[in-house]
Specification:
Blueprint (H helix, E strand, L loop, with lengths): L2 H14 L28 H12 L18 H11 L5 H4 L9 E3 L2 E2 L4 E4 L5 H18 L5 E3 L11 E6 L2 H4 L4 E6 L2 E6 L4 H12 L3 E5 L2 E4 L5 E3 L4 E4 L5 E6 L7 H6 L23 E2 L5 H5 L2 H5 L13 H8 L9 H20 L10 E3 L12 H10 L3 H18 L4 E6 L17 E5 L25 H11 L5 E6 L17 H10 L4 E6 L6 H13 L5 H16 L3 H16 L11 H4 L2 H21 L3 H21 L1 H6 L3 H20 L3 E3 L2 E2 L11 H6 L7
Parallel strand pairs: 1-10, 3-4, 3-5, 5-7, 12-18, 13-14, 14-15, 15-16, 16-17, 17-18
Antiparallel strand pairs: 1-2, 6-7, 6-11, 8-9, 19-20
């Protein structure tokens, strides 16, 4: 008799007298440590009391109350906990990870009894999906399933098959699928292009308990059972078609784990996604907001036709330098001819190299640069006066380009930008129905879009207020048929200062998709805070904005628990404090604001000791070296902001002990940032300025102090 049974034998009589009312905690891996019923990271008599109360009555408890991890909380769990108090059992030894786990099953049948059937061996994405299914079932369950490639295979009558079928494109588009279980067969009917691949990752996550957090970070949540029941019919078609997440410039080696597994489809800056086994991506040619730098460069006005290969001799930096600050006149016929000819050259070269429109050639950008000056010639002014916006001449120009390209290159999609000055929509002209407008949201990151919470005060020009952006957005919808959103969730210029937007992302994406947006281009850079969490959650929202707030919160907490351990609750409290500190400053302009324009300096000064305490508690609960490392890295931005806020009080005006403590902490943070090459801005790592205590950390790193408002 093992220790668990011995402990139970002594308490069995008591168990018989307790009525068993089952409470089902949330599915998935436990967010709280075993026995922690109240979610405070400690296990004591109060937890046993709450668990017993939940069995006989009602009480709010966490999934940590499910001691034996069988999916329910009963009197038996209470007895296990009491036995641990008496020293009869050790919870971590008696109930290790995976205790009671029954593995993967389909219709109650063990997955090891199944075989995988590929009905279209000529479809590289279907073949890749079958390999992924085989790989992760082997890793998670130990079962080595065979893969059969049989052209035109149909669903067998005797069950035991996982079969991939090609679905109707009018139903599934490029990415959708249906998972169903009939007569013991798991049927995956999916879009030919990418649906099979996405179906496998959805099955692994939604039914078998895998989580693909990003990069190569993956875990298997071991529930009591992972079954796909008979009669299951699960159809998933992504909320939006274009899903591009560029938070951090993922290198090619990361595409497999960061793009594919997160069900992304856009690959503007991810060239290795342009692979047939991944179903290609929505591949745009050239940068989103700067394509006129390439297609109508200033240098080509002087050498437009004399040397057709001249453009190819220039680097991107030379083109940008030559184009910066110029004024392109889109009313000139010469501008149209130069732009169209350069687009033709690019498309022809890609096609000659084996590219196919609709596969690795999908969209082509026709857009101004961010720093473009408005042309004020007579012809352009005439249009602007009619349109009441400089974007009117752009719309007319883009429509001409679109008409020409669609005739010569059927299937190509032209995309342009509502960016900077060109966010303000025209009053008359309308983009061609096939043209996509990529609207660059220049609003506030502190308030939910559509909430009405922004004051209407703009921070710079017409930027910084969702009130203004919503007006432009609504007007553009009357002047275009298709729209993507360019969304900034991070702070690329001050990466030691995250945006206070963790709890608004969900509502933002709900707003956009409820207004018919069909794609997202998400831009950001990873520093030392929550950018990777943002990336993970945004990927989920782009796939399914119909998920509940409860599910979104659950995924947030799962992510935090994986990276930081059971002390994630302290990290979560800190996130709430950050948002509170941000709310005191009002509207915030995406990623251009200085740190103490985003957060109240006084709030950080008053709460720095509490924030430090939260991270110390989180570190004490971190079990693995990886979790400890993640907590330490995350604390860097908190300490930087706190030290900057308390510089005057703790160092300049502090006593000897306070000054010494301050100097030691800032020295450790400074060294950690440099030793670990922490990004301080999107294009710089580490701190270039020498260490000093003669000025605040904020002044040392960014050359600023205080706030501007």
């Amino acid at each position: 008799m093992n220790t668990v049974k011995k402990a139970l034998a002594a308490l069995l009589c008591a168990a018989m007298t307790v009525s068993v009312i089952v409470f089902s905690p949330s599915a998935g891996a436990a967010l709280y440590k075993t026995g922690d019923a109240d979610g405070n990271c400690s296990v004591n008599a109060k937890d046993a009391f709450l668990m017993k109360k939940s069995v006989t009555d009602t009480a709010e408890i966490t999934d940590g109350a499910d001691v034996d991890r069988d999916g329910t909380v009963t009197a038996r769990d209470v007895l296990y906990l009491k036995a641990s108090f008496a020293g009869a059992i050790n919870l971590s030894e008696s109930f290790p990870e995976g205790y009671g786990w029954k593995g993967f099953t389909v219709a109650g049948r063990d997955i090891s009894e199944y075989r995988i059937i590929v009905s279209d061996p000529d479809n590289p994405n279907m073949c890749f999906a079958a390999q992924e299914m085989q790989k992760y079932i082997k890793e998670g369950n130990g079962a080595a399933l065979s893969v059969e490639h049989t052209l035109g295979a149909t669903v067998p009558d005797n069950g035991g098959a996982i079969i991939f079928l090609t679905g109707d494109p009018s139903v599934y588009g490029t990415d959708g699928f249906t998972l169903s279980v009939t007569n013991g067969n798991l049927i995956i009917e999916a879009a030919a292009k990418r649906g099979s691949m996405y179906a496998v990752y959805a099955l692994l996550e939604d039914y078998f308990g895998y989580r693909f957090y990003g990069y190569n970070d993956c875990e298997l949540l071991r529930d009591s059972a992972s079954d796909i029941p008979e009669g299951t019919i699960d159809t998933q078609i992504p909320t939006v078609n274009y899903r591009c997440n560029c938070i951090d410039p993922f290198s090619d080696s990361y595409v497999y784990s960061s793009d594919i597994k997160r069900k992304l489809s856009g690959c503007t800056s991810h060239p290795s996604m342009q692979n047939e086994k991944y179903g290609y991506g929505i591949c745009r040619l050239f940068a989103n907001a700067h394509s006129f730098d390439v297609f109508i460069p200033e240098v080509e006005y002087y050498k437009a036709t004399e040397d057709p290969e001249f453009l190819e001799t220039l680097t991107e930096e030379e083109i940008e330098a030559a184009s910066r600050g110029i004024t392109r006149c889109l009313s000139k016929e010469e501008s149209f001819d130069i732009c169209l000819n350069n687009m033709r050259k690019l498309l022809d070269s890609r096609i000659a190299a084996g590219g196919v429109i609709g596969n690795d050639i999908t969209e082509i950008s026709c857009s101004y640069s961010a720093y473009e000056k408005i042309c004020t010639c007579r012809a352009c002014n005439k249009v602007t006066n009619v349109e009441k916006s400089a974007s009117g001449i752009l719309v007319r120009f883009v429509n001409r380009i679109d008409n020409a390209l669609r005739e010569e290159y059927p299937g190509i999609t032209v995309i342009t930008n509502g960016y900077g000055t060109w966010r303000k929509p025209p009053q008359v002209s309308v983009l061609n129905p096939e043209v996509i407008l990529l609207y660059c949201w220049g609003g506030c990151t502190a308030h939910d879009i559509g909430s009405g919470d922004c004051s209407g005060r703009v921070i710079s020009g017409d930027l910084g207020s969702n009130t203004v952006e919503e007006k432009y957005f609504n007007q553009w919808q009357e002047h275009c048929s298709r729209m993507y959103i360019w969304y900034y969730p991070t702070n690329i210029y001050y990466l030691l200062c995250p945006q206070p937007n963790f709890f608004k992302i969900y509502n933002d994406f709900k707003f956009f998709t409820s207004h018919g947006v069909e794609g997202f281009y998400v831009v950001g850079t990873t520093g030392s805070s929550f950018e990777d969490l943002d990336a993970y959650l945004i990927c989920d929202l782009m796939w399914d904005t119909g998920m509940s707030q409860e599910e979104f919160d659950r995924r947030t907490k799962e992510y935090l628990r994986f990276y930081y351990g059971y002390g994630w609750i302290y990290i979560y409290e800190y996130m709430q404090m950050l948002c509170e500190a941000g709310s005191l400053k009002g509207c915030v302009l995406n990623d251009y604001e200085q740190p103490f324009d985003i957060y109240s300096k006084e709030y950080f000064k008053d709460n720095f000791s509490r924030m430090t305490e939260l991270f110390e508690k989180a570190m004490s609960e971190a079990v693995t070296p990886e979790q400890q490392s993640h907590v330490e890295r995350l604390s860097v931005h908190m300490k930087f902001l706190g030290l900057s806020a308390t510089y005057e009080e703790s160092y300049v005006n502090g006593d000897e002990a306070s000054r010494a403590e301050y100097a030691e902490m800032w020295s450790r943070v400074y060294d950690y940032i440099n030793e670990n090459s922490i990004r301080t801005t999107h294009d710089s790592k580490g701190i270039s300025a020498p260490f000093t205590l003669d000025k605040s950390p904020m002044m040392t790193v960014y050359g600023i102090d205080g706030d501007r408002y």
